Amino acid sequence: MFPWQCNNKKWFPDWIYYDIPITEIRKLINAIDKEQTVFNYPPFISEELRKLVVLSDDDNNKLEKKIDQLTKQNVELKQQIECIINYIGVEQDNKEEKDNEEVQDNEKVQDNEEEKDNEEVQDNKEEQDNKLEMQKEQTKEELPKQNIGL
């Protein structure tokens, strides 16, 4: 290689940047501190990186506090919704009672109409029965007359 190629910072930068999730960095730092990893040479972990990882723990604490606040608000909202549902339920019960009363009134009206229809049908049957009885009597009277005429 030529010297001007070795000094090219695009080819050989002083710093190499990696994109690693914080959780993996924490695990790696904890493993290095507890000597659970094996390296040919000890890795250099800057104090700034340690501070950033620790600061993110503070952010997690803030997030946990936010989560707690939101869960409390959620519980309060659920209680309010239950109160509203109970209130609406009372109104619905009143509506259902009114509807039930209307249905019962309609059933009574229908029952009365059915009774009237049944009475009319019975009256018609009685009339037909009376007519049939009269026809029987007429035939009984006519039969002896016909027998005499033979």
TrEMBL record:
Q: Where is the composition biased (Acidic residues)?
A: 112-121
Which key words are in the record?
A: Coiled coil
Report biased composition (Basic and acidic residues) as residue ranges: 122-144
Name the source's superkingdom: Eukaryota
Coiled-coil segments on the chain, per record:
53-87
List the residue ranges of the region (Disordered).
94-150
Protein name (record): Uncharacterized protein
Q: Which species?
A: Rhizophagus irregularis (strain DAOM 197198w)
The taxonomic lineage of its organism, from the top, reads: Eukaryota, Fungi, Fungi incertae sedis, Mucoromycota, Glomeromycotina
